Amino acid sequence: MVGENKLKGELRIKGAKNSVLPILAATLLNKGISILHDCPALKDVYSMIEILKHLGCTVKFIGSDIIVDSSGIIDNHIPDELMRTMRSSIFLMGALVSRNNTAVISFPGGCDIGHRPIDLHLKSLRKLSIMIKESYGYINCESKRIKGCDIHLDIPSVGATENIMLASVMADGITTIGNAAKEPEIEDLQKFLNSMGAKVSGAGSNTIVIEGVKSLHDVEYKIIPDRIVAGTYLIAAAMTSSEIVLTNVIKNHLESLISKLNESGFAIKTGNDYIKLFSNKRPKAIDMIITLPYPGFPTDLQAQMTSLLSIAEGTSIVTETIFDNRFKYTEELVRMGADIKVDGRIAVIKGVKNLTGTSVVARDLRGGAALVIAGLGASGITIVEDIEHINRGYENFDENLRSIGANIEKMM
Ligand SMILES: CC(=O)N[C@H]1[C@@H](OP(=O)(O)OP(=O)(O)OC[C@H]2O[C@@H](n3ccc(=O)[nH]c3=O)[C@H](O)[C@@H]2O)O[C@H](CO)[C@@H](O)[C@@H]1O
Ligand SMILES: C=C(OP(=O)(O)O)C(=O)O
Which of 205, 257, 258, 284 could covalently link to 265 via disulfide, CB atoms 3.0 to 4.6 Å apart? Predict the structure, then answer.
């Protein structure tokens, strides 16, 4: 891409990756038809579809609609090569054991952003009377009856909260999740499950209550907009001193980012379902950004924001509290002229006047997006390699950016 082009125009944000993936896993539960609207065409979504098909579902992806028929025979085994394609394959553990009483899976894959154990998932499912044995890299789950119980999470893990919800929807009795994650995608999963006849309440607060039901029915549902994709485009506009309007967004989901962009000197206007960012000046440094569980600043926007702050006036400090190795991309930003020092979970960013284009490598999804943002603002040509990471979370990233004025091409 050739940097320093102004962006101008409107983009509609599609459904959220982190909603559609657990919801696709949940389609196993109703033994019938699920129609999902506004689904993004992402590498992870295709991986999840492949797993559902392997298990015996019929799946069609037409336009932005995914139609899953899970009435057919459902296998109970997910091969290792499918499990490894992404982190979200772990959602199949709760859904599959709930549907089949047994599941044989292995450890999930995903971006290299630090240590990502699944101990909380395993511990919680065991509390629900699911017997879990680990051997030779496989995880064997079995339960005659899943039994509702009280679970208190040590960490408000998004994935563990969702896996418990999936496993307990049809359990005997009531399950309570204390210290649950509060991310909007968890509320979306609750709404989806309730639309198919489940009895889940409390998502969005730190206590979720799931009253087991005997059966579920067919469902049609629209996925919430992707707050991380929306945030990425807002930061891209800020980086290039541009003006863009995003539609199909939920402003409340982006409060922590909007507040930090305001602090950095950007004017943002919001309406019922749009956000507009207008900028014609260099960003101001931000004393402190700390990534935290929702409603705190999302770890999934940390890299993109650091990219922006690399050209800010002054010195910023970014602290990553969720993952233990999510600053790898900063080495690539430094190759573009950024002045960033990382010590463990803290990055100190001394703003430089401008970045310069060069060849850089995407090592993970959001780090890759951060490098594209850097390239859009940099002088000269930037080449971002290994963009398959970016395809995990951004539909038509290059096309969308080009449609609002970026000089960017995908090379085959
Ligand atoms: C598909 C999806 O929704 N992915 C999101 C989800 O990932 P994911 O669900 O993997 O993230 P978690 O909320 O579970 O992870 C938070 C922290 O808990 C730790 N942990 C988690 C589970 C466990 O069993 N043991 C344990 O120690 C993790 O290592 C991490 O340090 O939430 C993250 C945090 O908002 C986001 O960055 C990811 O985009
Ligand atoms: C880390 C992310 O996703 P996942 O949990 O799917 O790896 C992300 O979306 O930034």
Answer: 284
